[in-house]
């Protein structure tokens, strides 16, 4: 049998070998969608003769992209795999803009405004112009606006004062990004779509487009998929590329990110020659977990009917436990973790347990009980490595050296470590730079070189601080330019920054004790390790290149500056890369929101607080999506599934009665659950567990 098809079931084989020009693969949880999609990519290359550099594979997380690369590498080898255009929508868009952005006026050395940059710009603009808008809501609103097409944004009558104010904020936000030579995350997609619309030949080589987690695409991503597939067809250069999407409407839970569940129906209408294949076998969960999860999702009668079958034994009944309070609920949950782990006789460790929450705010009691019981845990979405203060300071200096027009990076470093450039001075400089239409760095340069006297009075100490800051950045730029490409430019640059800003003394002063100081030093060393790995790679590695198309000019930067630019872009895009303090994966219980847990699995899953107001959430107006959210949470479990709820909540010393979620009361579903944890003292339970987890039975 063909190695690519080995181990696939009939539906998976049909999906891998399909010759349909437009293929929809509907893949419920645990049905082997990644295995199927990666096998289809390999099959297109080995059997259909497609060149890997003519294939685009879009994912939604860096983790998923890495997993796909590893699997595809196993089929076709490193050399061919590295030539695929594979990554997240944002990283692929960034590659196209890096090579072809000059055709739509994007400078080749553009930077990326990460979330903290965007938030800082918005807060500054709101304060500067006294806008009556909450910064967090403004950021979400800007992102939603950019996630829609021009047609969807057509005005429907006169604008209210509030809308006019938002429009002014939006315009100023865009102007600030442009002046700083930055694109935010949404711009990467929008400007790539603009590029492909105006210059479709940039993608005229593409023969196949494959999209994972299609139910999570927004309107712009859907249009990007179409544009990649149609590149160059308007001039008769080629026939459209084939399109393969893998998704599951039942797992559409990201409407707050503008994900559009209607995209699947839109695709069905627009591509009349499409084929649909349903993957029906579940390889993840015990039979009862799948059965009860399906009884939740099937309450939505508007969804297409599906048949799912577990390949495993029924297993124990899922548990629905009622407790008197959230404190008692948390205490029971921790006791059950300890009981199951102990009775597993070493088969399960702490990392096999997950607590999945509708809202992160529900974690307080659970964290307290875990801590009191000595059970180690981690909060997904806690402090990310690149957000740690000591790491971020160095990164910001690197940003200013690479992109001095990055105003927010300048603002974060001009007085960090402190050099007597106070808030009043900075505020005056920002206001003057905005009035003159200069970047903040441009103004600081002129002041430091005595070429311009600022409007506001600046103290001698502040002037000295500005000059010191300017000299560090200017010398850093010179230091970078004088290095040969073989020297691994980033490590010496980091050491230059540490030395010239007297970072060691600063860290000692900022640390409450020696242990904190040592931890911060270790984080700086970890940053060097990551920078070194980037420096060791050629700037134009096979995985970065795009196929050169006749008549379409590519533009790239090279040398140490290109290495620095690549590193900073990777940092900005690494939004889901999280490291513990020592960079290792620890044996700890995971606490996560259900949203953040999508695509993951654990042997044992707890979903607490399944009461009305939590799920469905009191602020949600979409019960269908809330139901899908519970379904996604339940289908993360492989062997044991626990749901629980408190009958009372203590709010500001007042007790509030709780009602069980309607999703679990429908058709008396709650009566079918077990109401106590399963008996675990029989060999059969652990034999079945060993089979599902593919582990040795102790």
Automatic annotation (TrEMBL):
It holds the Pfam family UvrD_C. Its EC number is 5.6.2.4. Residues 6-286 form the UvrD-like helicase ATP-binding domain. Residues 287-599 form the UvrD-like helicase C-terminal domain. GO terms for cellular component: nucleus. Keywords: ATP-binding, DNA-binding, Helicase, Hydrolase, Isomerase, Nucleotide-binding. One of its GO terms (biological process) is recombinational repair. It catalyses: Couples ATP hydrolysis with the unwinding of duplex DNA by translocating in the 3'-5' direction; ATP + H2O = ADP + phosphate + H(+). ATP binds at residues 27-34. The keyword Signal does not apply. The keyword DNA repair does not apply. One of its GO terms (molecular function) is ATP binding. InterPro entries: DExx_box_DNA_helicase_dom_sf, DNA_helicase_UvrD-like_C, DNA_helicase_UvrD/REP, P-loop_NTPase, UvrD-like_ATP-bd. Residues 137-158 are annotated as: Disordered. It comes from the Eukaryota. This is DNA 3'-5' helicase.
């Amino acid at each position: 049998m063909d190695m690519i098809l080995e181990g696939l079931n009939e539906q998976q084989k049909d999906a891998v070998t399909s010759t349909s020009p437009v293929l929809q693969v509907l893949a419920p949880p645990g049905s082997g969608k990644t295995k199927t999609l990666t096998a289809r990519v390999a099959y297109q290359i080995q059997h259909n003769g497609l060149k890997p550099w003519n294939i685009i594979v879009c994912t939604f997380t860096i983790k998923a992209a890495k997993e796909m690369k590893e699997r595809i590498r196993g089929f076709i080898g490193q050399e061919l795999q590295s030539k695929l255009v594979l990554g997240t929508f944002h990283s692929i868009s960034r590659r196209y803009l890096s090579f072809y952005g000059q055709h739509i006026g994007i400078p080749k050395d553009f930077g990326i405004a990460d979330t903290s940059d965007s938030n800082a710009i918005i807060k500054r603009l709101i304060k500067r112009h006294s806008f009556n808008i909450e910064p967090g809501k403004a950021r979400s609103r800007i992102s939603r606006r950019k996630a829609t097409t021009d047609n969807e944004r057509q005005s429907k009558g006169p604008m209210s004062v509030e809308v006019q104010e938002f429009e002014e904020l939006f315009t100023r936000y865009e102007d600030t990004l442009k002046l700083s030579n930055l694109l935010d995350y949404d711009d990467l997609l929008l400007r790539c779509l603009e590029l492909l619309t105006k210059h479709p030949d940039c993608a005229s080589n593409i023969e196949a487009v494959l999209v994972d987690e299609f139910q999570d695409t927004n309107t712009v991503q859907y249009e990007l998929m179409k544009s990649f597939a149609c590149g160059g067809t308007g001039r008769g250069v080629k026939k459209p590329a084939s399109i393969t999407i893998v998704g599951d409407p039942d797992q559409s839970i990201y409407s707050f990110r503008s994900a559009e569940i209607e995209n699947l129906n839109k695709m069905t209408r627009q591509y009349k020659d499409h084929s649909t294949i349903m993957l029906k076998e579940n390889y993840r969960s015990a039979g009862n977990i799948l059965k009860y999860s399906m009884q939740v999702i099937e309450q939505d009668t508007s969804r297409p009917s599906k048949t799912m079958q577990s390949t495993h034994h029924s297993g124990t009944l899922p548990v629905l436990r009622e407790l008197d309070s959230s404190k008692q609920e948390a205490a029971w949950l921790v006791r059950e973790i300890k009981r199951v782990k102990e009775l597993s006789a070493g088969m399960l460790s702490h990392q096999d347990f997950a607590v999945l929450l509708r809202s992160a705010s529900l974690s307080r009691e659970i964290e307290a009980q875990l801590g009191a019981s000595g059970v180690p845990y981690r909060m997904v979405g806690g402090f990310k490595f690149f957000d740690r203060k000591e790491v971020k300071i160095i990164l910001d200096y690197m940003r200013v050296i690479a992109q001095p027009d990055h105003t927010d990076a300048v603002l974060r470093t001009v007085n960090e470590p402190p050099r007597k450039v106070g808030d009043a001075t900075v505020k005056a400089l920002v206001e003057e730079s905005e009035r003159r239409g200069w970047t903040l760095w441009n103004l600081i340069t002129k002041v430091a070189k005595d070429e311009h006297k600022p409007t506001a009075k600046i103290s001698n100490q502040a002037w000295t601080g500005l000059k010191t800051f300017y000299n560090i950045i200017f010398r850093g730029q010179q230091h970078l330019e004088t290095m040969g490409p073989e020297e691994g430019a980033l490590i010496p640059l980091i050491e230059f920054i540490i030395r010239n800003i007297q970072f060691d003394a600063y860290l000692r002063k900022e640390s409450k004790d020696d242990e904190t100081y040592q931890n911060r030093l270790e984080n700086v060393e970890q940053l060097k390790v990551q920078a070194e790995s980037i420096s060791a790679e050629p700037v134009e590695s096979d995985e970065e290149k795009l196929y050169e198309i006749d008549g379409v000019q590519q533009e790239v930067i090279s040398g140490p500056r290109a290495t620095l630019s690549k590193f900073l872009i990777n940092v900005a895009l690494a939004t889901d890369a999280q490291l513990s303090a020592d960079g290792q994966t620890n044996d700890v219980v995971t606490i996560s929101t259900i949203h953040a847990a999508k695509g993951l699995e654990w042997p044992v899953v707890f979903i607490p607080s399944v009461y009305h107001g939590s799920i469905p959430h009191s602020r949600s107006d979409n019960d269908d999506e809330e139901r899908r959210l519970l379904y996604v949470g339940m289908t993360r479990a492989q062997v044991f599934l626990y749901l629980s709820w408190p009958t009372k909540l203590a709010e500001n010393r007042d007790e509030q009665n709780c009602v069980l979620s309607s999703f679990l009361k429908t058709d008396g579903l709650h009566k079918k659950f077990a109401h106590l944890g399963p008996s675990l003292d029989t060999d059969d339970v652990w034999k079945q567990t060993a089979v599902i987890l593919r582990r040795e039975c102790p």
